[in-house]
Amino acid sequence: MPRVCTVRDVDWGGKTALVRVDFNVPMEADGSIADDTRIRAVLPTLAYLRGQGAKVVLMSHFGRPRGGPEPKYSLAPVAERLSALLGDSVQFSAGESVGEAPERRVHLLEAGQVLLLENVRFHPEEETNDSTFAQKLAKLGDVFVNDAFGAAHRAHASTEGVAKYLPAVAGLLMEKELSALGTALNNPKRPFVAIVGGAKVSSKLAVLENLIGKADSLLIGGGMANTFLKAQGREVGKSLLEADLLETARGLLERARERGVRLLIPTDVVVTTSFDDASAPVRTTGVDAVRADELIMDIGPDSLQAYEAEIARAGTVLWNGPMGVFEKPAFAAGTLGVAHALAGSHAITVVGGGESVQAVEEAGVADRLTHVSTGGGASLEFIEGKTLPGVAALKADCA
Question: I need a surface site. Which of 81, 115, 196, 292 has the fewest CB within 10 A?
Answer without folding.
Answer: 292
